[in-house]
# Entry
Amino acid sequence: MSLRNLVLIPALLCAASAFGQDTPQSAHADILNAQGQKIGIAKITPDHKGIKIEVTVSDLPPGMHGIHIHAVGKCEGPDFKTAGGHLNPDMKKHGNENPEGPHAGDLLNIEVKADGTARATLKDPMVTLADGPNSLFHDGGTAIVIHEKVDDYKTDPAGNSGARIACGVVQK
# Structure
């Protein structure tokens, strides 16, 4: 290898970093219940606009449940209030049906089957794995929270989705 190539390699590495090449290609959250037991996982990958979240959970009450990205990466049971409010760097109101919304962390509901399991693929165009205020990795981190009831997509601050019943800290 020539001296010229040795000089170019560090320059190329710096350029790649400047263009976001060090952005994580994926993330995940181990979903825990109020007793601290792992009941599922959320796998997070970049999407053409925003992120895609693949959620697989078990041992939840059947029915529709609100699920959101919360602004603090802390999941202390049994109520998971340590996860803070929804990720909302633009200071909007809750829900896609709210004329003053939505929060960046607002997601579609998930449906839990009679056997207590759910699998869902959710997309969030307002969140990223890269740096910035809408990053899952901003200072303090973020968490995925599942609520006891269905989200009505319009009532601030959480769509009348009730108590927090499961939570997972987003990790690289």
